[in-house]
Amino acid sequence: MPHVVVVGAGVFGVWSAWHLRAAGARVTLVEAYEPGHSRSSSGDESRIVRCGYGADEIYSRFAMRSLRAWRDWAQESAPPPQAPLFHRCGVLWLSGADEAYVEATRRTLEAGGYGVQVLDRAALRDRFPQVVAEDTDVALLEPDCGVVMARRAVATLARQLERRDVPVVRGRARPGPDQAGRLRSVTLDDGSEIRGDAFVFACGAWLPKVFPELLGPRIRPTQQVVLYFGTPAGDERFGPRHMPAWVGFQSGVYGVPDLEGRGLKVGIDRHGPAFDPDADDRALDAASLEKARAWLARRLPGMADAPLVESRVCQYENTSNGDFLIDRHPGHANVWMAGGGSGHGFKHGPAVGEHVASLVLGSADVEPRFSLATKSTDAARSVY
């Protein structure tokens, strides 16, 4: 079995290392900062796990495999009375003006037996009275889905890998010398080298910096804002027992119930400005706060005047259309690239890691949707 060096300890990196180690490979994990750090795309408190993807059933399959893995792993890693790593609160789809996408999601989920409930306006009002959706004729609920505690999950996986003889090396890694079309090592900023037989670069928003000529025009990091609003004292309507996570792509807003007392989370899904994950400040902008408050006033009037208790700026690393990039480097036969999460990648970590391990070990072929050849330089997002 080869020695595989995995560069990047975000969700794609840790799950790739996990599956490679489970298959018997020797693995070294390299991370520039720290697993779950605040600059990473995997670094916020929570991430939604849903299976609905319109007509893109390939992502529904990946999401279902990952959902099962997340639930099993979370139950083993944080049994009660520990704080859970996965909350099965359900995911609610509000149609509004994007009925066609929600209808395609319903058809895909029902045809594949994924588990979905269709709620008309009256049923939605009865089930979730805190949600105002009078402009919604039909809503969808994925009752088995929910939310992963993202930052804590990534950090926990990294610690578990260390206990499985996977060293986690702190440092920024760059491709070292090439010999006959194969990479021999990665070089850290201190000049040290880590040699390997195969390499996986799962660097998220840093992939364009690692391979600037190849990926600089093809992966665009953008600034993305999430906001946490304090819930009323003694009011459980906005916690995971009574409130699902929700998605509304037409409105450009998604959200998560109040978990661990951090507040109700509102995320802005519209692509923000270009963003440097190393150097740019992570300060909240007034337009994002205004958009979040407008959404609360419209959909959750009980939170309309809630105080902002916390905000985060992370980043998406966007491919041209939102499809992942999971492919071999065209210049290095033993180098694989895994990234382009495009804002929806976290939930797929377990299935992506399994797929990457199969590619590295030669038991799978590249999925055409994820290939480098399909990544253009023109932004035309079609996967949500």
Derived structural class? alpha+beta
Residue ranges: pLDDT <50 for 5 or more in a row?
A: none
Approximately what portion of the residues adopt beta-strand conformation? 25-35%
The largest beta-sheet arranges its strands as: 6-7-5-17-18-19-16-20
**What Rg, in angstroms, do the CA atoms define?**
21 Å
The CATH superfamily of the largest domain appears as FAD/NAD(P)-binding domain
Q: What is the CATH architecture assignment of the largest domain?
A: 3-Layer(bba) Sandwich
Name of the CATH class of the largest domain = Alpha Beta
CATH topology of the largest domain: FAD/NAD(P)-binding domain
Query: What characteristic shape results from the CA principal axes?
Result: globular
Give the tally of structural domains.
Answer: 2
The biggest beta sheet reads:
8 strands, mixed
Distance between the termini: 37 Å
What is the number of beta strands?
22
> Helical stretch count?
9
